[in-house]
Every structure is written in C-alpha cells, then in structure tokens.
Design a protein that fits this description.
With 259 residues, the protein is of the alpha+beta class. Strands 3, 6, 7, 8, 9, 10, 11, 12 and 13 form a nine-stranded mixed β-sheet that branches. The chain has one domain.
Length: 259
C-alpha cells in the first residue's frame, strides 16, 4: 500500500512560497520605487503612536536613515538659462553643491534639474539635501540672512550643522491626493540646528523656561515667512511636532502660509 503522507522535503518550497506571498502582500509601492506599509500612517498600531515626521513618512526611503542614490548629471546636458543663473547665485552664496541627474519617479514626483546641497556659507547640511535649484537658493538665503545672524545674536556662536529630515521625497500631502512639495524638490524639513559652541537645538517645542532657545526658534521661524511660501512647525499640528517645514509652493496673489 502506497504511503499517503507527503514527503518532508516537498513541503519546503510550498512554505517558502506562502511566506513570500505574505511579505509582498503586506507592502505596496504607493508610487515610490521602494516598499512601504499598506497601513494608514495615521492609525495607532502601537502603544506609542508616531509623531512629527515619522507620521508623514514612516518608512520613506528618502528619509535620513535610507538616503537615495543620486547619480551626477550628464556633462553633455544642455541646462536652461534660468537654471544656469540659479547655480551662479548658489556660488555667490557660498553653497557647496553638485548637479544631479534628472529625477522622474512617476506621477508628480519629478525634478528636472536637481542639485545636492552639502554646505551653505560654511554650515554643513546633514545629510546632503536633494532639492530644486530654486529651493536651494531660497533656503541658502534664509540660512545666511536669518539663521546665522540669529545664532550669533542669541548665542554668540556660529552655526555648525543643519540636520534635515527630508528633502526630495516622492509622496502626497498626508490625508490628501495632492502631491507634496517634497515630490518636486521644493521643500526641506529641519530637525535640529547644531551650533559651533556645542549647543544642539532641537526644533521640537522647548520647555517653559528655555527662554533663549524659544526666542531663537521663534525668530528664525517667523523670519522664514519672508523667504518661503510655506512655513510650518511645532504647534501647527501633530505631523509637524518635531520639525520646521519650509517650501516654495506658489499660491494665488503671492499668499504665504506661515503657521
């Protein structure tokens, strides 16, 4: 009589196939060239729900822990006159940057002439930020005219490093179907500001008695409204509880969202 039980070795390929199916089924590309969770990022799946930038992009590959690989631009590419002029301005502002190859991740996720900024007027950018040249120029002007003077005035110190959490990132505005300005390279999120005297200033809302720190953060945030079209930060909503969001999204009649 033939043995009706399956051979032990035959179950291994089937088990592997099931495991692979479960793994792939739990993730989707969501318009990005990398796996990301299917679950709603606003749901609290654990005892400690995510706040700030982690709510916006819980597993985004463009975030600090998973930087994208940015190939350099082709030397033979013909750059538009406006982009050439923008890069000339970056050099005048003492910005350390390199030209990148065009980014096209599908849909609205596109930057035709991106740059990678690693330093501004002696201030290091960690990690290097992938931006449109227009955003790089605007952020550099804010750094030189607002951030650095504010640090010298309140702390008698220069700025050593700007720690950013997200520059170019292929994603929508959370809770909507509209593309984020990050998907165009027109936005940058600042998490921490490190001074040359060793002080490390976290953008998260400071304590009640941190008067100097609060004054410094309020100053550079409000002064940003004269440079950017959108300035958001702690106190606006839970998504921005731990960082400043700056972008140059154009609005009707030149309106500015400064909150």
């Amino acid at each position: 009589m033939r043995n009706s039980h399956s051979r032990p070795g035959a179950a291994i390929p089937a088990a592997l196939a099931v495991a692979a199916g479960l793994l792939l089924g739990a993730c989707s590309t969501d318009g990005v060239l990398s796996l990301r969770p299917e679950a709603n990022v606003g749901d609290s799946g654990s005892a400690a729900p995510a706040r700030g930038l982690q709510r916006l992009v819980p597993s985004d590959p463009m975030m600090v822990g998973f930087p994208r690989w940015n190939p350099p631009a082709e030397p033979t590419a013909t750059m538009p006159a406006a982009e050439v002029a923008c890069r000339r301005n970056l050099k005048r502002l003492d910005v350390k940057f390199r030209n990148l190859a065009p980014i096209d991740d599908g849909g609205a996720c596109r930057v035709d002439w991106p740059v990678e900024v690693s330093a501004i007027n002696g201030v290091e950018m960690k990690p290097a930020a992938t931006l449109s040249c227009a955003m790089a120029e605007t952020f550099s002007r804010w750094t030189r005219s607002e951030l650095q003077p504010a640090a010298r005035w309140r702390y008698l110190s220069g700025v050593k490093t700007i720690h950013q959490g997200s520059s170019y990132s292929c994603r929508n505005i959370r809770g909507s179907g509209r593309p984020s300005q990050h998907s165009l390279g027109n936005a940058l999120d600042v998490m921490r500001i490190e001074l040359k005297n060793g002080r490390d200033i976290d953008v998260r809302k400071p304590g009640w008695f941190a008067f100097r720190e609060r004054g410094f953060l309020n100053s550079v945030r409000s002064d940003g409204c004269g440079h950017f079209n959108t300035v958001l930060g702690p106190g606006y909503d839970a998504d921005h509880a731990d960082h400043f969001h700056f972008d140059i999204m154009p609005r009707k009649n030149g309106a500015v969202a400064c909150r």
